[in-house]
Amino acid sequence: MPSRTDQRAGLAYGLAAYTMWGLLPLYWHLLDAASPSEILAHRMMWSLPVALIILAALRRWSWIRPLLRQPKRLALVLVGAVVISLNWFLYIWAVNAGHVLEASLGYFINPLVSIAFGVLVLRERLRPLQWAAVAVGTLAVVVMTVAYGRMPWIALGLALSFATYGLVKKGVKLDGIEGFSAETALQVLPALGYLVFLGVRGEAVFVTGGTGQALLLSACGIATAVPLICFGASAMRLPLTTIGMLQYLAPTFQFLLGLTVFGEEMPPERWAGFALVWAALAMLTWDALRTARRARTALAAAGARARETAAAEAARVAPAAGPPSAEPGPKAAPDRVTP
Fold this sequence. Notes:
The protein is mainly α. The chain is 80% helix and 0% strand. The chain contains 14 helices and no strands. It has helices at residues 4-30, 36-58, 64-68, 71-96, 100-120, 128-148, 153-172, 176-200, 205-208, 210-218, 220-235, 240-246, 249-260, 268-321. The model is unreliable at 332-339 (pLDDT under 50).
């Protein structure tokens, strides 16, 4: 079990990661002079140098050769790179098109979509409260469809793509920085090719937008990697239940930004949809906490039973052995036999 110092550090790392992810709309909004596709290309291209620097600092290269010898895992890495690229593009586009609230909704409902994937793809069995949460989440989507006058496809696209990415990551089985490095290695060439294409056409904001825009675009890699590193450090030190509760911070920040900074409208019917989503998440959180508490209680009871059994076995064996026998004294010399 991690020490209190490790847990405090893990909590700090987790808060930093999800706060940065939650405030990313402010960063993407600074880059609205560039198209979402150019921002995405810079995000992919500049992420690789950051990943290589981290790998060099940690001296973690041993995973590369085994991955290259496994075509199926490499194909899964490619699928993950494509899916997360779609997720990044949709998120950047949503922010700069004035749909921050709907983007936040996507990350609120993402846990519900992940649960649905667990049932449909991994054949997992849900507890009753999880079923209730999924039903309430489905009702929320219906309400939001009525509220928007259309299917909330931005929210659903973000939730589906990120849940798919999580499912693919289960099959790849690489740690955070290693998976990130493998994905960005596959992303970098298409990104570089697209940026060269924009430059030739004279449409690259990196070249025409001034020093400030160029620096901000170059920092996309840092903006992508730093929260990921903090998340990895947090995940190593905190239980999954705590991580699960922290994950709601990012969409909460996004929601508040959309409501206050970006001034998006929030009519009563949208409030109703969000309230249903939050109710579903409250059910999931309560179920996770209750399950974790029961697991800890069961583990403690099993440990106590094991100690009692060991003590009883030791008490049973000790009398059977009896007291240690006395050391035999010196043997008497035999009578001398005379011939």
